[in-house]
Amino acid sequence: MAPRSIIIDTDPGQDDAIAILLALASEEFQVLGLTAVAGNVPLALTEANARKICELAGRPETKVFAGCARPLVRSLVTAEEVHGKTGLDGPELPAPTMPLQEGHAVDWIVDTLRAAPAGSITLCTLGPLTNIATAMVKAPDIVPRIAEIVMMGGAYFEVGNVTPTAEFNIYVDPHAAHVVFTSGVKMTMHPLDVTHKALMTRAWIDSLRALGSATGQAAAAMLDFYERFDMEKYGEAGGPLHDPCVIAYLLQPELFRGRDCNVAIETRSDLTMGMTVVDWWGVTDRPANCHVINQIDAEGFYELIRSRLARLP
Ligand code: BDR
Ligand code: CA
Predict the structure, then answer these.
(1) pLDDT at 1 over 90
(2) What is the atom index within ligand 1 of the atom nearest the CA of 162?
(3) Fewer Cβ within 10 Å of end Cβ, the chain: N or C?
(4) In CATH, which superfamily holds the domain spanning 4-309?
(5) Where do the domains of the chain lie?
(6) Distance (Å) from CA 16 to ligand 2 centroid
């Protein structure tokens, strides 16, 4: 089967890093490029982190573009308390030598979607949706050309991780999320409801280190750092790996289960700003606009990641 063409929009982030490594390790994908957005840390760090990860994977030819440096309306909120001041705290990764592509990520997304056959490119979003919404507003003709969007974002039964009702990616740019969720594009969302069922174990992180490769060592060091925050916060034995759910879903959808629902984004209330209001029980007449995932085969998920990362240098 021909590889699936994907664009990964990301704010690395250790869990973004694992998602990117998983994609780069998988022949099922043609990774057209990575587009960085401000989120976990400011843009200057997320674009550099994206390049560090490509170099770690031995893929310095991967195109990396810098996108939007702040959300559409609100001020940028970052998450150094989770990811460290670099966004990728844990391993000592060298400063990247591969180039940042010239031009803005949003323009590249627009040009790439226009140049490819309609319905041939999937967008994988691992951070705030600022770049994607901006592309949709700048060039509405690209919207029907997107095959689908598979995202990490939102929460419903698991409620919020950054406010009592909001998940980080949606909270950072709820207005962008509103644009994307009302676009009519086919969407699949991996909210905290599923990612909090994908908890890492110490044995699994150690199994990455035991791969003996630079990638395995760096991934284990990243995850050692990253999981301490959620373990302290939730009192669980391991932290959740959010963003790799997006890539794993495209590789092995049978590991996941969910249902089609209407999802609307709260953009007005200070109290519940950025909440993803999921009509899980179908109590409104709002039409379904998103496949909302809430179940995962966590063992299968972690084995998929380990076995694919084992292919990297
Ligand atoms: C999301 O927020 C970020 O901190 C993670 O990278 C993930 O994309 C989880 O809420
Ligand atoms: Ca992320």
Answers:
(1) no
(2) 10
(3) N
(4) Ribonucleoside hydrolase-like (3.90.245.10)
(5) 4-309
(6) 5
Give counts: helices (H), strands (E), the chain. Answer: 12, 10
d(CA 88, CA 49): 7
Residue closest to 63 by CA, chosen among 20, 36, 34 = 34
Ligand 1: centre distance to CA 254 (Å): 23
Q: Quick one: what percent of the chain has pLDDT higher than 70?
A: 100
Contact by Cβ (8 Å): 40, 127: yes
What tens digit of pLDDT does each residue of 32-84 get? 999 999 999 999 999 999 999 999 999 999 999 999 999 999 999 999 999 99
Tokens, residue 41:
């840390």
Catalytic status, residue 242 = yes
Query: Which residue's CA is minimally distant from atom 10 of ligand 1?
Result: 168
Tokens 């003709």 label which residue? 141
Ligand 1 pocket at CB < 6 A: 13, 15-16, 40, 79, 82, 126-127, 152, 161, 167-169, 242-243
Q: Is it the case that residue 229 has pLDDT exceeding 90? A: no
With cut-offs at 50, 70 and 90, classify the pLDDT of residue 113: very high
- Which residue's structure tokens are 């302290």? 232
